[in-house]
Amino acid sequence: MPALPPIPSLPELPPPGERPAWLEVLLEVVAAQGEHIAAQAERIHGLLEENQALRDEVARLKKQKPKPTIRPSRLTAGEKNKRRATRRRKRDGERQVDETVVVEAKDVPEGSRFKGYDDFFVQDLVIQVRATRYRLQRWLTPEGKLVVAELPVEAEAGHYGPTLRSFVIYQYYHAQVTEPLILEELREWGVEISSGHLHALITEGKEPFHREKNEILRIGLRVSRYVHADDTGARHRGKNGYTTHIGNEWFAWFQTTESKSRINFLELLRAGRTDYVLSSEALEYMVVHKLPQEPLAKLAAATDRSFADRTEWEAALKGWGITDERHVRIATEGALLGSALEHGINRELAIISDDAGQFDVLLHALCWIHAERLLAKLVGFNDAQRQALEEVRTAVWQLYRDLKDYQAAPTGETKKALADRFDALCTTKTCFTTLNHALKRMHRNKGELLLALERPDLPLHNNLSEGDIREYVKRRKISGGTRSDDGRRCRDTFASLKKTCRKHGISFWKYLNDRLRGEGLIRPLPDLIEARALSPP
Length: 537
What we know:
By secondary structure, the protein is of the alpha/beta class. Among the domains are: 138-201, no CATH class; 213-359, no CATH class; 368-454, no CATH class. Helix content is 52%, strand content 9%. It has 21 helices and nine strands. A hairpin with a 2-residue loop joins strand 3 and strand 4.
């Protein structure tokens, strides 16, 4: 076998200050590939763990001992006690007592004195089926007409009472229990119900809830000075779609559609309306987005006109000879914005997002957490680059903390100083070329990242929206998606109602019972949103 040729030695790299730009970028790409390889290794490690779990399951089925996977706890005893303490809920007022049982002491010696009681509380649930038979009297009048008694109001909704209907909705939309498990649960308790009737309880006859949900958005956009926005994937009828979240500390609103374009977002901001309005704000939007003069002049001639729906609007565009795809898109976005403003959306409304382009309407603010993630993903190739990256990230978070302090006590002097620091930070030239590009991108977004200097009331991050929409991610893992339009609509409606109830400290269980019984003890959620907006901070 012939000997292998010797491996040639690689030439030494120039010092960091003398390297050409293309070499710096190449070295950073190599470092990024190393990070990719590490991520793949971590993925392989996860697959190995999954494979071992399957081997353990096979061993259990064979009645063999699986490989132990017990890991020691990383928490100290003090940390565990602290975590347990945070989970304890404080009671509001006195305990509820439905029954008191006196337990007599045994073998009490003669001459003992009674010293009162030691109380020991036991909570329990009473789960049982309660069936009511309504016997409707039937009378035949002398004229031969049959008179039949009418059902009471509580029985008009069907063969299942309000508590059972509340329980089904609560289990499915709040506890995220699947239909087959709810069906099995009810039948084990003695409820006579078919899978079809159960599905109807989940998705049919929910118009009052849908109306309240739509009103939540309308009032929320009218009284709020800012909202958070985000979206996530959601499958429907076996196809990929998107769920958009709009909300703040007062409300949460969700809608699932086939698109996540800016046109789709503006259609949602209309809060259920279908019209298109050519207002001065609509034309201003078209000018900012550089609609050419010829189509702009045709649209300006129709200022203050409105169009009932998409069909009428598209016919008008075609009549004006506006057919270019880009021109139609810009004109449609402007007319949708005009419709939203026409129907009462707050004209000073700011939208906070993670830099997704579809949310860039009205006043747009960016999330600092997402902006800094671009820096967190970078990997330095050498010690100098790693140190530069660490210094820049430290400076970014210090600027973030100082912005929060400014919001508490804004002054003109501090405002200018923070803007100058942002400029200085983003124009810093480091030995890390990719870091320089990331800082340049942050600088292009200066107006949206520093909008809080003009509007100190705006949050600096979009965590609220990400937290609200996380439930859709969990639901996607459980059920995969919706199959009917009613199912999709109900999922969005009850997610909106549940999250809004939570923001106002209202039990979702009590809310469902109140609405299904028609008691009206809990105020409409849009009224609560409006009251919160009018109350002093």
